[in-house]
Amino acid sequence: MLTLLSPAKVNLFLRVLGRREDGYHELASLFQAIDICDTIRLKDADADALTCSEPTLACDGSNFVATARDLFRQKTGVKQAFSIHIEKHIPMEAGLGGGSSNAATTLWGLNELSGRPATTDQLIEWAAELGADMAFFLSEGTAYCTGYGHVVSPVDALPQQSLWIVKPPYGLPTGDVYKALCVSALPQRNPKEHLSHCLGGTFDLFNDLEVPAFSLKPELLVIKSQLE
């Protein structure tokens, strides 16, 4: 059995630049892995099995982990079946990337179990096929991400810091937030300038998805105001 940590991430800034022809949005964001982690346990099996400690999380073909497992076999030709268990600690529908992290961690773990038929670069390419921010979770933990989040440019590790994650007892599906987004109304910030500031130690924290999130759940604005 292989037991792996599957970390969450935060967007230290997130700029939405426009809508792409493929339906995704063009982004520029500084991603940072954090030490809230799920645990993924993988082993060879006689038949595929996917289980999870969180009963509300679907464990069928709609789960990113199942999609990652199937893609791995398709790309490598590996015939082996696998048993995969997800122990959830990352809050869902919180923008923390838990599902994407689980899928990327699964790709890496299956590659290890199978004798490494794929290179890390190939795993990153396959992760980008699966979803917007999955490739990031095969980086070293700090990266400037562009495209629809799939173009990962590693940057030097930031100084270790403490932060609070505040998650109310409800969530917002990412797709719903993007549907409520009006790109033309966003402030015209230069993401490269904000990246330079962050790498220099001055954190210009913002998220272009904040306004549509607040429009869907006004309670979030109340929470932010209380925190401030």
Structure write-up:
α1 runs parallel beside α2 and α2 runs antiparallel to α3. The longest helix has 16 residues. The model has no long low-confidence stretch (mean pLDDT 92). With 228 residues, the chain is α/β, with parallel strands linked by helices. Strands 1, 2, 3, 4, 5, 6 and 7 form a 7-stranded mixed sheet that branches.
How are the SSEs ordered, and which strands pair?
Blueprint: E1 2-19, E2 25-45, E3 49-52, H1 64-76, E4 81-87, H2 98-113, H3 120-130, E5 142-146, E6 151-154, H4 174-179, H5 191-199, E7 206-207, H6 210-216, H7 218-227
Parallel strand pairs: 1-7, 3-4
Antiparallel strand pairs: 1-2, 2-4, 2-5, 5-6
Helix pairs in contact: 1-2, 2-3, 6-7
Series of secondary-structure elements, N-terminal to C-terminal = EEEHEHHEEHHEHH
- Which term fits the overall shape? globular
Q: Report the sheet with the most strands, covering strand number, pairing sense and barrel closure.
A: 7 strands, mixed
Helix content: 25-40%
Determine the mean pLDDT.
92
Global structural class: alpha/beta
Low-confidence stretches: none
- Number of helical segments? 7
The end-to-end span amounts to 45 Å
User: Count of DSSP E strands?
Assistant: 7
Percent of residues in β-strands: 25-35%
Radius of gyration: 18 Å
